[in-house]
Every structure is written in structure tokens, then in C-alpha cells.
Amino acid sequence: MRLQESGEMYLETIYLLSQSTSRVRAIDVVQEMGYSKPSVSRAVGLLKDGGFITVDAEGCLHLTEEGLEVAHKTYERHTVLSNFFKAIGVCDEIASEDACKIEHCISDTTFEALKTHFETL
Hints:
Number of domains: 2
CATH superfamily of the largest domain: Winged helix-like DNA-binding domain superfamily/Winged helix DNA-binding domain
Radius of gyration: 15 Å
Number of helices: 6
Distance between the termini: 36 Å
Oligomer: single chain
CATH class of the largest domain: Mainly Alpha
Shape: elongated
Largest sheet: 2 strands, antiparallel
């Protein structure tokens, strides 16, 4: 199943939240992303149906292996792109905003070439 940008953002957010707490709930995603409860609830349902997350009996969200793979990929792209933009003189805020936009549409080929080039600098 191919995720849209919003799905990737939700998975990345769940991943980042899980790095600081063992209990990630939908309300945590609401607060982090600034979306409404109904929007997050719908996204959680879609991600669960798609096999990207599970929800335990206490309502905690857990990334599946596939969900974790997408979250890692999205987060890596964000980090590499943001660092690249900062290295060429873009301020932190704009670098992060632009990386967030590009991370979802850049091809694997172009990203890997950019990452390889950046690592050799």
C-alpha cells in the first residue's frame, strides 16, 4: 500500500514520540501535530487498516515493521535534507520546512545520490 504524504507524516510523528516515551496515544499525536481529534482518529484507523500501526488495549499506538520502515525512511530524508540545506546557508527553520515538503516526493535515486554526495563533503 502506497502512503500519501499525510500518512508518512503521522508515522514519522509516532516514531519521534516513541523515542521519548513508551506510551504514544492518539492524543499525543493530536498535540504534536496540531490536528483535530477526529482527523487523527481517522488517520489512525487508516494506518491500522493498512498494517502500519497497531493499537493495544490501552489505546497506545505501535509501529509495525512496515510502519517503522516508512517512519525511518521519512525521518532520514528529513534529517539529511535539512542538514544539507543548512550546510548551504539556509536558516534552520526554513531548512526544516523545506525538507518536510521535499522528503515525501524526492525519488529514492535522487535522495541516495544527494545523501552520498553530502556524506563525501
